[in-house]
Structure formats: C-alpha cells, structure tokens
Amino acid sequence: MNYSFFRKSISLCAGLAVLSFAGGNAVAQSNNDTLLPKMPDPIQNLANDGAQIRFLGKDHGVDGWIAIKNGQEQYFYVLPNGGFVSGLLFDTKGKAVTIDQVRRLRQQNGELLDSLTANAPQAPTHARETAKADKYEFKTPSEQLYADLEDSNWLPVGQAGTPLLYSFVDPQCSHCHNMMVALKSYIDSGKMQVRMIPVGFRDETQAQAAYLLAAPSPVDLYWRYTNGEKDALPASPEISKQGVQRNLSVMQSWKLSVTPLVVYRGKDGKVKIIRGMPKNLESLIADLGART
Q1: Which of 21, 33, 219, 266 is surrounded by the fewest CB atoms within 10 Å?
Q2: Is the pTM of this model over 0.85?
Q3: Residue 207 in contact with residue 235, Cβ under 8 Å?
Q4: Are residues 276 and 258 in contact, defined by beta-carbon separation less than 8 angstroms?
Q5: DSSP conformational letter for 240
Q6: What is the signed CA dihedral for 43, 48, 49, 51, rounded to 10 degrees?
Q7: Is the pLDDT of residue 226 over 50?
Q8: Nearest partner of 271 among 151, 154, 142, judged by Cα
Q9: Distances from the Cα of 9 to the Cα of 3, 73, 88, 112, angstroms
C-alpha cells in the first residue's frame, strides 16, 4: 500500500478536528454517544507536550486517536490487550478506515484543525530533544531551572547550533513583542537562537499560546501577530491547553510571574536570569555562551 497516498488523502480530502479535555478522564463524545476512554500514557505524554488530541472512535474493535503537533498528524490504535500501534487502520477489504474516521470528525468540527494542518510540508519539529547525559551537575537552583527549561515546551527561533537563550513569552505581552522584534536582526544574522516558551495568564492567551505549539510554522505566525495580524493566533476554546499549562507549571514552581523572562548560560558557564525586557541587548549577545 502507498502510505503517503492515504495520508495525503486524509489531510486534503477529510480535514481534521480537535477536542479539549482534562486529564484523560472520560468525556461525553457525540460520535455514537460513546464515552472518551482513558488515553494510554504515551498519548497522554503527547498531550502534555502540546499536541492536540482527538478520539477517532472505536471501529473494528480498537480505539483510535489522532495527535496533531506542528501541523503534522499521527494516528494511534489501542489494541484490546492494551498495546497500541501507530499508522492507518484498514478493514479486511483493504479500505482505509482512518479516512472515514477523520471525515466523520470533520463533519463535527473541522475548521480549527484544517488551519493547524494547512500548508505544512516542512513543519518545524518541536524542540524538546532526546534525553542526553547532562554536562552540568545539578548543584544549584539555577542549574535545575535551566534543566527544567530545556525540558519545557519551547519553539526555536533562529538557527540551530548558535548561542541561545530561553524566554517565557505571552502572545499578548507587548514587552515580549518588543524584545523579540529587537532581537530579530541578531536571530536573522545567525548570532543567536531564542527558544520561546509560550505561556498565558488568561484563558484567551493560553489558547493562543497552545495554538502556537500545535500549528505549522509557529514562528511565522508569531511574527505576523506581532506585525498586527491579530487573526494569525486565534484563541479557540477547542484548543487543548495542556502543553501551555505544563510551561506555566514550570514558572509557578520557580515563583516566576513576569514575561518576558530570559534565562541563558553566559560565557562563564553560569546560568543568568533577566526579568522583563533586557536593557542592553549588545551586552546580552556578547555574554551568550556557546550552545550546550
């Protein structure tokens, strides 16, 4: 079977939809009046990482799920014994059941995920990286904070391999906009990378931040939004905010409440924190250490 053909058929012909839910508990599902089953832990982890999750329904004896992140879809089917597989579901005649499932979802609510999966042939990979041996032992709170930021849901702005900094960013924070615009020339010239950690202190901004985590080309959407295109970041109540809430939990655990909030490792190897808009960008860029 030509897997790519069927995948394109799903994306182009059927469209997608999303459901917001809390903690994997059973939620009323309009499809055949069934209940949303508890998500397997690996799928719940995707939700925690900012993916938008929707229950595809129970067909041919298996529960189906779709996960969408950075404009790319993944399909999962949970087997009766608790195991699960990733890919498309076919019936005994070779018909792609997944296509019918997604078409069914689109009839319920397809507009939101149509936008999340549109025009994303090279959607950026979310920046949470594979676990690696830590170069620095966690002897100080600042080192633990840095490790927590590395493990948060962040979006890379700029070239990989350049000196970097992390920053909590609220989509509607004007100081965040000003900082990112001020750093753009350094980013575009390859002098640094900003790892934006989207957060929101209200339901509206949380939904916009969650849209950033899920949508294709999130950096482009953010620049368009800062340029005044307010429709670039919709605040749909259907968006799952779990990935953003994970970022907020990092802030709250460290009693941080300001955006922007910049954290970086300087040339001297020490972790440094700037609350609010950096006052001297040239000094900041000069002090950035190499990427770790």
Answers
A1: 33
A2: no
A3: yes
A4: yes
A5: -
A6: 60
A7: yes
A8: 142
A9: 10, 12, 12, 18
| Angle between helices 218-226 and 174-188 in degrees, nearest 10 | 120
CA distance 152 to 196: 10
Largest Cα separation within the chain, whole Å, is 66
Residue pLDDT, tens place only, 6-27: 444 344 333 333 333 333 332 2
User: Using one digit for the tens of pLDDT, what is the confidence trace for 162-184?
Assistant: 999 999 999 999 999 999 999 99
Tokens 């700029």 -> residue: 158
How would you classify the pairing of strands 72-78 and 62-69? antiparallel
Q: What is the DSSP string of 88-130?
A: --B-TTS-BHHHHHHHHHHHHH-HHHHHHTTT-TTPPPPSPPP
What is the total residue count of the chain? 292
Q: Are 162 and 193 in contact (CB under 8 A)?
A: yes
Which H or E run contains 54? strand 52-59
The answer to which of 26-30, 124-128, 186-190 has the lowest mean pLDDT is: 26-30
Full DSSP string of 127-167:
SPPPP---SS---SHHHHHHHHHHTS--EEES-TTS-EEEE
C-alpha–C-alpha distance, residues 121 and 58, integer Å: 29
Q: Which domains does the chain have, with CATH numbers?
A: 3-116 (3.10.450.70), 141-287 (3.40.30.10)
C-alpha 75/C-alpha 85 separation (Å) is 8
